[in-house]
Structures are given as structure tokens and as C-alpha cells.
Amino acid sequence: MMLKKIMIPLAAFAVTVTGASAFTGSGWLQNSNVDLTDTQVSAFEQAREIRQTANDEARQVLEKAGVDETKMREIQTAMNEEREVHREAVQTAIENNDYQAFLTAVTDSPMADKITSEADFEKFIEAHGLMQSGDRDGAEEIFTELGVERGEGLGGRGEGRGDGYGRGDSEGKEGGMRDGFGGPGSHMMNR
Fold it and tell me: How much is the pTM?
């Protein structure tokens, strides 16, 4: 399970950040100690091409509907504002040890399915305290017990998948539509 948690982000990073040149010739991956088969290299190249095609198609759909860069910035700003309001509500609930306020703050978020009782909330507060005091291992143990995954904590960016439209496209170009098509969210604990 741990290998899967490491490999999926690594593969996503390789597909989104690098071009096919990373896998061939003098690319950084070719010069590393990572041993990839020709089939694996081909899979990365194909995955990158699929992602680029999908991004281009999504961009065209949005542009056709009149969603331009200005509108995307407006959406991102609104999402960021909502995320901050949500994060502050969760933080206040934790600081005040207010389970009902916490439930209200996490309504319609994945966290609502993980912290389902006052006992869970107390453990969550304990983990939050451990994290703030520097005991990451102790906090991680409690988070794991609660089913709270890395990144679903207070102060993070987005709950579940994606953090909105602000990541830039996979080529690192400025301008044009962004490729982060995730929705707004609110992690509950920086981890």
C-alpha cells in the first residue's frame, strides 16, 4: 500500500512535469538510477500524450462556453476565498473543542465521513495538538486510525482531489487555461 501511495504521485509528476525527452536521450530520468523498461517508457509517453489531448479538449469546451482566463481567475479567487472561510471555521471549531461547529464546517466534505462521532473528534483534536507540538508520528498514527489521509488536514489545499485551477498547464506555460480541473476543498491539517 505504501509503495502505491508513493508511485502514483511520482508517475503523475513524471507525466505532468516532463516531456518525452525525460525518458529518452539525455533526459534527467534516463541519467538517474531508475530502471525503466522500454514498455514503461512508452507507457509514460502515451499517458502524457493522453493527458495533453484531454487538457486541450477540456480547454476548447471551456473556451467555446466563454470561459476565458479572466473567468478562470475569478473562479479560482472565489474557490480560494471559500476554502479559507471553510478552513477558518474548522480551525475555530478545533480551537474551541466544538464538535457541532466542526460538523457544520465539514458538511459535504470527505471529512464528514471520517469524523463521525465526538470520540473521533476528540482523537482528531489530539492529533492536531500532536502535530502542532512536532510529534508528526504520533499524529499520523491517530490520523491513520481515523482514516484521515495525508493532506486532509487543516491548512492544506483541497480535500480529496485537486485544488482548483491554479497550477498552470503541464508544459509550464504562462497564460491560457490552467489544467487543474479539481474543485474547491479544504484540508483540515497541514501534514
Answer: 0.54
Are 94 and 184 within one domain? yes
Which residue intervals of 113-187 are DSSP H helices? 118-132, 136-146
Q: Of the residues 15, 35, 64, which one is the last residue of a structural domain?
A: 64
Measured CA to CA, the distance from residue 183 to residue 60 in angstroms comes to: 19
Name the DSSP class of 68. Answer: -
Mean pLDDT for 149-173 is: 42
Same domain, 71 and 52: no
